[in-house]
Write a structure and sequence with these properties.
Elements: H1 2-11, H2 13-24, H3 28-48, E1 55-57, E2 63-71, E3 74-78, H4 86-98, E4 102-105, H5 111-123, E5 131-134, H6 138-147, E6 151-157, H7 160-172, E7 177-180, E8 185-189, H8 195-206, E9 217-223, H9 227-238, H10 259-275, E10 278-281, E11 296-299, E12 316-322, H11 325-332, E13 340-344, H12 348-357, E14 362-365, E15 384-385, H13 390-395, E16 398-406
Parallel strand pairs: 3-4, 3-6, 4-5, 6-7, 8-9, 8-13, 9-12, 11-12, 13-14
Antiparallel strand pairs: 1-2, 2-16, 7-15, 10-11
């Protein structure tokens, strides 16, 4: 049924992408890619569900000891507005592959996109009551579900403050959680990196979904010797971004999701200006309708600026110089977040050193595709715990039972 649901989503990709464009302002072509990423995750989970194995453990004579995996039970899953298709696909796929039913609390900002995902599974023949979709007052719903004896696990993707609140509620009920929370991903571009390639990859990912993604690169440190060349190359790609109607095929940058996000970005940029940062591109709204903000690049941003500590969650990149790798690693690790980080270097020793030194759950070296089907993804510290994707993602929705049998 997972495969059938995935097939229906693939058939309906154009329809669902249009829903995301209407609800989030995401350009249609980009929205289609997010639907297809969700399909890939579902197809992988459907196959991985066949490989949730137990094991037999060597034991004393006349004794057989087995460790088996069982579905953990009903899951309360909470998904965010910035991923109303991909994130539900990830939670549905892992839950069903592990043998669990789930109650999905979708985001009120994008209800139709998530409902279309659930409808595909209903049409695929998933029995009534296996996937349940609810909307409403988030606090009331989360409190009720977490306290309910029916629910045995919490899976949440969203902000750090809300994640901590839900985890505390779940802890009081002794219920396990999977928490994928916010980030403020550092980027280190070394002197020996392929500068043109790094600039192209970083600009593409930075402004996808208008920068509204938890793994989005946001704090860039570029080696002093190549800083000017990188800035020039990065700005050349930023200049190609075209805000506009999400249904226009020429549009490759949509608006931010709501007025709150727009105000937050304006506040961060104004603060950075006050602290002495250079505005290299953008730095203001685009037009006077909707929630469009120009793709913005800040340079030489002092450490006291709020943007160096607060996740922007918008089309805003910070480009700073560095001279010492030790110093830049310390700066990258100075925040409580630890979701993703990115490194660009052609030196294997430097890549290994930085991969081991950066405090995060995922490191991308010379590319940005770090959250795909078959790959575990999640954070450390305030960015959460547990993993989605990969065998770890499916196993997160199971519990281990040990059976020790003495033959008499």
């Amino acid at each position: 049924m997972i495969q059938r649901g995935a097939a229906l989503l693939r058939e309906r990709v154009d329809e669902i992408a249009r829903l995301s464009a209407m609800e989030l302002g995401q350009p249609v072509a980009e929205a289609k890619s997010y639907v297809l990423r969700g399909v890939e995750v579902l197809e992988w989970d459907a196959a991985e569900g066949r490989r949730v194995y137990g094991r037999i453990i060597p034991s004393a004579a006349n004794t057989r000891v087995m460790a088996t995996r069982e579905p953990i039970g009903v899951v309360a899953a909470f998904t965010p507005w910035n991923g109303p298709v991909f994130t539900p696909c990830r939670k549905i796929g892992s839950s069903l592959a592990a043998g669990c039913a789930l109650i999905l609390k979708g985001a009120e900002e994008a209800p139709a996109s998530t409902a279309a995902v659930v409808q595909a599974f209903a049409d695929a023949g998933v029995p009534a009551g296996v996937i349940n979709l609810v909307y409403g007052n988030p606090e009331m719903i989360s409190s009720h579900l977490i306290a309910s004896p029916v629910v045995r696990m919490i899976s949440f993707t969203g902000s750090v403050p809300v994640g901590k609140h839900l985890a505390a509620q779940a802890g009081a009920q002794m219920k396990p959680c999977l928490m994928e929370l916010g980030g403020h991903a550092p980027v280190i571009v070394c002197e020996d990196a392929d500068i043109e390639d790094a600039a192209a990859r970083l600009a593409f990912v930075k402004y996808r979904n208008a920068g509204q993604a938890c793994l989005c690169p946001s704090r860039f440190w570029i080696a002093d010797a190549v800083y000017d060349r990188f800035v020039q190359a990065f700005l050349a790609h930023v200049e190609k971004l075209r805000p506009g109607d999400p249904f226009d095929p020429e549009t490759n940058l949509g608006p931010v999701a709501n007025e709150r996000r727009l105000a937050a970005i304006e506040s961060l940029v104004d603060d950075a200006r006050t602290c002495g940062a250079d505005v290299l591109a953008g730095g203001e709204r685009w037009g006077n309708r909707g929630y469009y903000y120009k793709p913005t690049v800040l340079g030489h941003v002092p450490g006291q600026a709020r943007i160096m500590r607060e996740e922007p969650f918008g089309p805003l990149a910070v480009l700073n110089r560095y001279e010492s790798l030790d110093a830049v690693v310390e700066a990258a690790n100075s925040l409580p977040y630890g979701l993703a980080a990115y490194v660009f270097t052609r030196d294997a020793a430097t890549a290994e050193r930085l991969a081991g030194s950066l405090a995060c759950g995922t490191v991308g070296i010379n590319h940005m595709t770090v959250s795909t089907s078959g790959v575990p993804f999640g954070g450390v510290r305030d960015s959460g715990y547990g993993r989605e994707g990969g065998i770890e993602g499916v196993e997160s929705y199971t519990t281990v039972k040990t059976v020790s049998h003495l033959f008499t």
